[in-house]
Amino acid sequence: MIKSGIELADLASTRVGINGPASDDRTPWVLRAGEDRYRNLIRYMPTALWQVDTSAARRIFDGLRSDGVTDIADFLDAHPELVELVKDVVCVTEVNRAAVSLFRGQSATDLVKSVRYLFTAAPQMARRIIIAHFEGRRNYTEQTKVLTLDGQTRDVIFSVTFPLPPEELNTSFITLLDVTERLRTEAQLRQLEADYAHAARISTLGELATSIAHEVKQPLAAIITNAETSLRWLTRDDVSVGKLEQLTTSIISCAHRANDIIQRIQSSAARGESERIVLDLKEVTAEALLFVRHEIDASRIDLYIDATAGLPKVLGDRVLLQQVIVNLLVNSIQAISQSEPLNRYIRLSIEWTDSDMLIFSIRDSGPGIAGADLEHVFDSFFTTKEGGLGIGLAICQSIISAHGGRISASNLSEGGAHFQFTLPTAPATLYYEDRIPICRAAQPGAAAAGATATAHPGVLLQQVEPAYRTPR
Amino acid sequence: MLSSLVIAVVDDDEAVREALRELLQVLSISCRTFGRAEAFLAAYRPGEFDCLITDLRMPGMGGLELQQKLRALGSSIPVIIVTSVSDPLFRSRTMEEGAFACLTKPVSADVLLHHLTAALAVGKNSGETSDDKKRD
């Protein structure tokens, strides 16, 4: 029977019904009408479709099986020429209009030939399809590229549907969905996203700088005016000790106020709003990577992650620790991007020393830190970046100290910077408690980050190396 | 000459306000201080003050709006704006809207005194000085 809501998987069975022995009582006219409908459906369907005669491949498979071949992947490794043979002997028997249009052909006859042309841009895909077919799978799908007849590369979702008994076993169907535009849009979106995140970060820092400047300038203005007023009193004959005392007292209190403002900025990140929960530092790292992953990709940096299995957990504030890791990552990305080194990599590692500390390390292939700067990198308002505020690492230090750890910077002997922070491990007795009431949670961001963690379980948590390598 | 003048100081920051009062005092200039622009406007009468020194960013009405309100009331009182905002765009806007000077905090006493003297000379010529008050 012909189904109106046609599905690819059904097409093969449809053909069986039409070409098979006419054991039913339908007249040839009825069958003919059905076949026309089916042909029209295929011809005009918007998905690019190939009907492929795989009888030659089946004969090869049968031969292999009778020779006792069971592991086709192994066999193809030893006989790569077989893949090339299959590309030549398996032939396209029919294509629809969408297929001709996708491949920029003149007519269907341009595409009705051996399937080799489908694999020009991705030669290894043929091997993967052969394996899937040999193993008796129903479908095989991958996102890949094809080269059109006029030499363009298109991104496509390439799907093959293999026949299963009792269907016509010599016919497979291939569908291609052109996703070139979609991928391009996605890439643009990612770029926009990265630009936006960058702009947002800059503007937040800019606003912060303006408001810090305003706050600090008030007491400084009062100090200067009071000091100048004192000097003017001193030149007068009627100088009053009481007045000078009052002005000096005011100067001292304004100076304390300015100092308090700076103190508050330094510790604002680690103030009482933070919470302490039992955290897996590997998870926190994975979540932090989500923020900068596109920047790492875009900067063509290889990221390696090395984390020992079974690390103990730490007690901390998820969002604050993410901020530290993001900050360190952004520093490394910028260092690498500014110096254009030959190798572009960032290596993260989390280790457990025999003391009760975890050590988080980030090493990069940037230019490293100038010797004279090494002891100042954690100072507030110290920066070597044009337009940099110099508060990132100072805040990192505040956060890590508030967590009972230490942060340090050094240079690698092979070049590049090495930042490292330690965090005390959480007492194992706390592992099963949800929240540790050291400080009450009052930070909505912490809950949001928690949700992120659940939404991306296991992101980059495997100990593979590299975690992801950006395409060159 | 300056001793007969009254300067209004508007700044939401008490330390800054008091420091300016002390400075004007050592210069023998009398002043009245206000913590908010609204408080100054309530106390304002034509001819009551010879010059206004005001902050730009304040809770409630800011220095720019205060200047606009004064001009709308027909006042030509010289306005010296003292601000921690160093944005040149903002500066030129306050000047366009008729400020006598726009100084960036922290301001040295000499600079302030220089502008204050000049502003008072202008104010005298434009008619809005405490001399008017005396003539009334």
How would you describe this structure to a colleague?
The complex is a heterodimer of chains A (472) and B (136). With 472 residues, chain A is of the alpha+beta class. Chain A has 13 helices and 12 strands. In chain A, the strands form 3 sheets. In chain A, strands 2-1-5-4-3 form a 5-stranded antiparallel beta sheet. In chain A, strands 7-9-10-12-11 form a 5-stranded mixed beta sheet. In chain A, a hairpin with a 4-residue loop joins strand 9 (345-352) and strand 10. Chain A is elongated. Chain B has 6 helices and 5 strands, in the order E-H-E-H-E-H-E-H-E-H-H. Chain B has helices at 14-26, 37-43, 63-72, 88-96, 109-126, 130-135, and strands spanning 6-10, 30-34, 51-54, 79-83, 101-104. Chain B has a 5-stranded parallel beta sheet with strand order 2-1-3-4-5, sandwiched between helices. In chain B, helix 1 (14-26) links the parallel strand 1 (6-10) and strand 2 (30-34). Classes of the chains: A alpha+beta (472), B alpha/beta (136). The interface between A and B is medium-sized, with 23 and 21 residues.
Jot down its keywords.
heterodimer, A: 472 residues, alpha+beta, 5-stranded antiparallel sheet, elongated, B: 136 residues, 5-stranded parallel sheet
Q: How are the strands ordered across the major sheet of chain B?
A: 2-1-3-4-5
Distance between the termini of chain A: 50 Å
For the terminal residues of chain B, how far apart are their CA atoms?
A: 20 Å
Share of helix of chain A, binned:
40-55%
Order of helices and strands of chain A: HHEHHHEHHEEEHHEHEEHEEHEEH
Shape of chain A: elongated
Please give the largest β-sheet of chain B.
5 strands, parallel
Structural class estimated from helices and strands of chain A: alpha+beta
Pick out the low-confidence regions of chain B. 129-136
Low-confidence stretches of chain A: 1-22, 268-272, 433-472
Total number of strands of chain A = 12
Shape of chain B: globular
Provide a count of the helices of chain B. 6
